[in-house]
Specification:
ASB_dom_sf; elongated; seven-stranded parallel sheet; alpha/beta; 31% helix; PGDH; binds 2-oxo-3-(phosphonooxy)propanoic acid; serine biosynthesis; 20 helices; binds 1,4-dihydronicotinamide adenine dinucleotide
Length: 631
Amino acid sequence: MATTSISSATNLNNLTPASSSLQKNSNPSSAHLSFSHSSISLQKLSVHTTNFNNPISRGFSIFNVLKTAQHSDIASSARDSDPVIKSQKPTILVSEKLGEAGLDLLRSFGNVECLYSLSPEDLCAKIGECDALIVRSGTKVTRQVFEAAKGRLKVVGRAGVGIDNVDLQAATEFGCLVVNAPTANTIAAAEHGIALLAGMARNVAQADASMKAGKWQRNKYVGVSLVGKTLAVMGFGKVGSEVARRAKGLGMHVIAHDPYAPADRARAIGVDLVSFDEAISTADFVSLHMPLTPTTNKVFNDATFAKMKKGVRIINVARGGVIDEDALVRALDSGIVAQAALDVFTEEPPSKDSRLVRHENVTVTPHLGASTKEAQEGVAVEIAEAVVGALRGELSATAVNAPMVPPEVLSELAPYVTLAEKLGRLAVQLVAGGSGIQSVKVGYKSARDPDNLDTRLLRAMITKGIIEPISDAHINLVNADFIAKQKGLRISEERVYVNSSPENPVESIQVQISNVQSKFASALSDNGNISIEGKVKYGIPHLTRVGSFSVDVSLEGNLILCRQVDQPGMIGQVGNVLGERNVNVSFMSVGRTVKRTKAIMAIGVDEEPDKETLKKIGEVPAIDEFVFLDL
Ligand SMILES: NC(=O)C1=CN([C@@H]2O[C@H](COP(=O)(O)OP(=O)(O)OC[C@H]3O[C@@H](n4cnc5c(N)ncnc54)[C@H](O)[C@@H]3O)[C@@H](O)[C@H]2O)C=CC1
Ligand SMILES: O=C(O)C(=O)COP(=O)(O)O
């Protein structure tokens, strides 16, 4: 039995329903939940629907979890010719140049707008109309962008590797998935690194400029050889290891520093993994291939240059920010660094009078590492597939800020995901006004080994079900844990082994809200928690227990729960009230603990009964309490 705590709770005032209990004779208008801190009422429970002709409209894809609309050629040509449907297609903004093959793929799915020179203000003004944004390194996707999107932006696709230009924290808070294209430009970046290494060693750029200025300076541009020299690769990931492989081919001795790289991968290429200090102090050439993170920011500075061999040469095709550029100018001036070849800069483009760029021992290129035809086509397709997949509700293998849930797990969990959300929604509607929700316990009964049951999705959906009806938050797999934590909601999970078919990932899900009053006292179990339980039957979510009462109703439409004295004729009496008011009953189920004592009646209704109808139900003599729930 495993219990996972998500967050510790403070008081969750903003999850406090304001309405009071729905005990018998209460004003039926209170049958409609309203909440003290905002104007959100039960009406909010009708799931937000944008409804383009694809599944993102259905609230949770990764978001609503599963793809429901498949993309066929017929469907897409119909969409293209119908102006109404066309306007319902997702809008994908491409803010930097992207390869045609990727654009074609995007166009087959959504309305694609390519706007390549948007100012930050223009981007913020535009983003509220977009479902997806595709950028390269030149667009800063800041918190302001996510704020301006007002919840519409679902995916940011980074057509490349580095995501340092995207505010990931803000993306996560706003429930926006960020995907990148991590593989298609690896070789291009590695080749550019090698080009800079060899070009720098032989002064190719400087000699070229000199000749174009009419000079012939053979003595000035004597270079250094690469063979037998030591190259330190800093960051032994995809690009770094390809640089290492190529440098070995040039006869260099290659060492690498990477705190996270497996030693056997390095050994396989004939590279020694060493400490940071050993790498920088023994190398003749230092090539940078780590990402820009708070840890790597300006990691090459006065102190680290001072540890390097005099006359060292530096190549940077990673990110400008890993170098303190003023310190590099000082190291170049003092001769510690003989030469530098730089593709990337702290500020891009750097200022025209940048001392670093103008330094005679520095070779520069304008962030061209990924800029080969082949890489750009590859990156464009890689990112287009990831963005389209995300918009369809699939979880991308290249998601940067969401847990990976493989497609087979997603499809298996689909009905349980709906069950989880509905149980969350139902449970929160049972909380009485004045109660602050702090702690939710979720129990999964399953025949599966805990390692074989990924509950993140279910937990996210329960969180969604609990929080969305009573706040403005839109919750998905990306932001569920963050928002729960932010709201002081602690969700603990418990998996209980049951001896049933392991074919079913989950036998039942129980949601308990602790330490609260309930507006439907019968929903409280013996331990005082609001407790409901559900199962998936024939692919349809069912409510199977309320408090200590067994019931069996499919979780569709609206639900009235009544507690009454278990006696003949109750179903008929309530049915009559509803029938007279033209409210169609879709199903009914009665559950009791002991014969002829108390029973719970669960009534599914197609229409929402008006106040008068609810009042009349309350007036049926044997009914002790009732509650109307919007699923
Ligand atoms: N100039 C350009 O056009 C391009 C630049 N890049 C940049 O190159 C860098 C590497 O890209 P990939 O190899 O694809 O990424 P990667 O994620 O495969 O490799 C990065 C490696 O850096 C390592 N690392 C992290 N922190 C480190 C630290 N403090 N010290 C040493 N190593 C550390 C990681 O363990 C990882 O192995 C990224 O910053 C990316 O943005 C990538 C492609 C094109
Ligand atoms: O992929 C990366 O990290 C790059 O730096 C490439 O940047 P770009 O897409 O060419 O602006």
